[in-house]
Amino acid sequence: MPRHTVARIDLENLRHNYRRASELAGSARAMAVVKADGYGHGLARVAGALADLTERYAVACLEEAVALRESGLSHPVLLMEGVHEAEDLKLCEAEGFIVAVHDQHQLPWLESSPARPEVWLKVNSGMNRLGFAPADIAAHAMHLRRLGIRVTGAMTHFACADDPASERTLEQTRRFEAATSGIEGLSLSVANSSAHFRDGQPMFEWSRPGIMLYGSSPLLGTQGPDLGLKPVMTLESRLIAVRELAVGEAVGYGEAWRATSPTVMGMVCIGYGDGYPRHAGNGTPVRVRGTRVPLIGRVSMDMLAVDLTEIPGAAAGDPVELWGPHIGIDEVAARAGTISYELLTGVTGRVPRLVRPQS
């Protein structure tokens, strides 16, 4: 028998979260962001579950777009990083992939290629990762259109939309609007997940919900349920041993936790080799028999320890929720000094994904 360490995937909750994104997008259409293997939930699985709800998908790279086609989906797909070789433009045109163009070095590829894929221009409105300067967008759009290339959209990405108190999102929106004003025939897209929850934020034609689809909060200081979102992944394991520790006894590598009173300790068969964060500290909650209990000691590759003193009768075989409907992934991420995005995409391949409902 295999271990009982699994990630349960609730596709109905995924669909609920997409509908929530669509509601918040207003008149804009929401393209489902399914990059990074559907944020660790399975690319084909989540894209298929949303196929009747979304009109298009967004991914990071060509490999992900090809995987969507191989799964049988024919929706338009936006490649948010564009292509990395000129020869890939032909495949993009053939498969209906929309290519984000964000840097000068990509322009000669389009100029010399016989392929004419649909193109979106990326505007660097202040995040300073990818994108053309706002003042250059109109000229690039005109140049590419003269070559017969279909420039149909423009996009940008926000740096601080997760912080409701920040004014940077408004500044970036204004820069983007100024850069694209007067260019006819462009669909505009600015809104990542967090922008959906900003009062008065223009959504334009397309929003791009990502992490919110999977039930995690995109806003600082909040949990997914606070925003009407439902968790899609429940990471679950079981106790494999229970023992008593005397005062002064330590647990795990480096003896990072030591009992100050008689303690009932349980070992759970999950660790950083499964994607549970190694830096989750003492006190990080898990759930056993309906009760939140704290993690104690350092997380090992294959195991972690929890304090079961408050749960009389806890025994090997009891289920343990690491995150899910009762233990918020955003709380676990904060305890580990990271973000939920990293936790979801970091669940490793040795953890089976069990899907509900079955596809």
Question: Can you put this structure into words, describing what you see?
Answer:
The protein contains ten helices and 19 strands. It is α/β, with parallel strands linked by helices. The chain folds into two domains: 11-216, TIM Barrel, CATH 3.20.20.10; 233-356, Beta Barrel (Lyase, Ornithine Decarboxylase, Chain A, domain 1), CATH 2.40.37.10. A nine-stranded parallel β-sheet has the order 2-10-9-8-7-6-5-4-3. It has a six-stranded antiparallel β-barrel with strand order 11-14-17-16-15-18.
Describe the structure concisely:
The protein has 359 residues and is an alpha/beta fold. Helix content is 24%, strand content 23%.
Question: Which value, in Å, is the CA radius of gyration?
Answer: 23 Å
Shape: elongated
Q: Write the CATH architecture name of the largest domain.
A: Alpha-Beta Barrel
Counted by DSSP, the helix tally is: 10
- Gap between N and C termini, in Å? 24 Å
Order of adjacent strands in the largest pleated sheet:
2-10-9-8-7-6-5-4-3
Q: Please report the first level of CATH classification, the CATH class of the largest domain.
A: Alpha Beta
